[in-house]
Design brief:
This protein is α+β, with helices and mostly antiparallel strands. It is built from eleven helices and nine strands. The strands form two sheets. It has a seven-stranded mixed β-sheet, sandwiched between helices. The protein is elongated. The protein starts with 12 loop residues before the first helix and ends with a helix. The chain binds ligand 2U9. The site of ligand 2U9 has 22 residues, from helix 7, strand 5, strand 8 and strand 9.
Length: 368
């Protein structure tokens, strides 16, 4: 039977003691039976709710109803009762949440002796690593770094670099064009950049001379993939424009860069070449870093390895940016460009460019 608060007829100390003892006995019985959060809340409300909780009923039925002379005695007991009830209700709730957290701990038990999940360390891709190494050599010489979009207009990829419309030099670039551009003027038609050179045009449009900038990035050409060709590859190009820049500055800069990249014992050789954006132009070779120049399979017994192209910026290129201070009679400059994959292949002794793009962990793990 659930406990109910009786009306008191007898206010003698003995009768009050009995009533209090019965109430506490009822309370303890109910407290012991609680087995869930819901029951625990209902139990607290039943005994302690301000509105019609058992303590409130005790107040009304015992204290308020007590005759004057008994009020003091009843008051003391009712006060003590409040403290006791609160204590017992709190204890009951504590016991319940204690066993709930015990159950949760039990369900979350883990075996810390099991082996952990193996997360192997990542590493820079050898192409990106090589690209950063090249860029850092030029940064150390005071060059800033610029990047630009891979989708370009005909104007920035060709025209402003002195490849006039229909010029045969365009054919050497195996360009991938964006479809559906026929309605536009040729100079506005979109294509995938075939070199990072458009970035140098953007840089000169933004910054008057002097300028020293290196440009790393991805380029696209309609090449069939084989051991030395890939339709996507990376370049690092550079440009220096100032008053009195000479071919001598170009040679000194690139000689230093090659020594920084391949070791201070390599020598460089400049060989006449042609590029539409430079005049004069040169191909640069370094002494074979495998055989030291004696001749081996890597350098095809020549003792030299061709690594990059360069030249003095053609005045026709400056014409396109002369409004920003690039007056060909006042300034001069040199430019250079290199293929990152080719340099990485030579540096690490890799004979197939496709290995860079296949994502084979057995290959990539060797660079961790
Ligand atoms: C501007 C003016 C001149 C960039 C240059 C080369 C020479 C060059 C090739 C190397 C191997 C491309 O990846 S590759 O096939 N590049 O030989 N690039 S001079 O000359 C510029 C660029 C921008 C405004």
């Amino acid at each position: 039977m659930a406990y109910t608060v009786p009306k008191l007829e007898d206010y003698s100390p003995a009768a009050l003691d009995k009533a209090v003892a019965e109430l506490l006995a009822g309370l303890r019985q109910e407290a012991a039976a609680i087995s869930s959060e819901g029951e625990s809340k209902a139990f607290r409300d039943r005994w302690m709710a301000r509105k019609n909780g058992i303590l409130t009923q005790v107040n009304d039925l015992w204290l308020k109803a007590a005759p004057g002379p008994a009020k003091r005695e009843v008051g003391t007991r009712v006060n003590n009762l409040k403290t006791d009830v609160e204590q017992i209700v709190d204890d009951a709730q504590g016991r319940l949440s204690g066993s709930a957290s015990q159950a949760r701990l039990e369900s979350e038990r883990i075996d810390i002796t099991l082996p952990g999940i193996h997360r192997p360390l990542g590493a820079e891709h050898p192409v990106i690593r090589t690209m950063n190494e090249i860029v850092n050599v030029f940064r150390a010489m005071g060059y800033s770094v610029a990047e630009g979009p891979e989708i370009e207009t005909d104007y920035f990829n060709f025209e402003a670099l002195n490849f006039p419309p229909n010029h045969p030099a365009r054919d050497t670039q195996d360009t991938l064009f964006v479809a559906g551009q026929e309605k536009k003027q040729q100079r506005d038609r979109l294509l995938l950049r075939t070199h990072t050179s458009p970035v140098q045009i953007h840089a000169m449009e933004q910054q008057p001379p002097p300028i020293r900038v290196v440009v790393p990035g991805k380029v696209h050409r309609a090449d069939t993939a084989d051991a030395t060709h890939s339709p996507i590859f990376h370049q690092v190009e550079g440009l220096a424009v100032d008053t009195n820049i000479t071919f001598c500055d170009l040679k000194g800069t690139l000689d230093h860069a090659m020594k920084a990249l391949f070791g201070s014992d390599v020598n460089t050789r400049f060989f006449p070449s042609f590029f539409p954006f430079t005049e004069p132009s040169a191909d640069v070779s370094v002494t074979c870093f495998k055989c030291g120049g004696k001749g081996c399979r890597l350098c095809k017994n020549s003792g030299w390895i061709e690594l990059l192209g360069c030249g003095m910026v053609d005045p026709a290129v400056f014409k396109f940016v002369e409004n920003n201070g690039y007056k060909a009679d006042k300034i001069s400059g040199f430019a250079f460009g290199m293929g990152v994959e080719r340099i990485a292949m030579l540096k690490y002794g890799i004979d197939d460019i496709q290995l860079f793009f296949q994502g084979d962990m057995r290959f990539l793990e060797q660079f961790v």
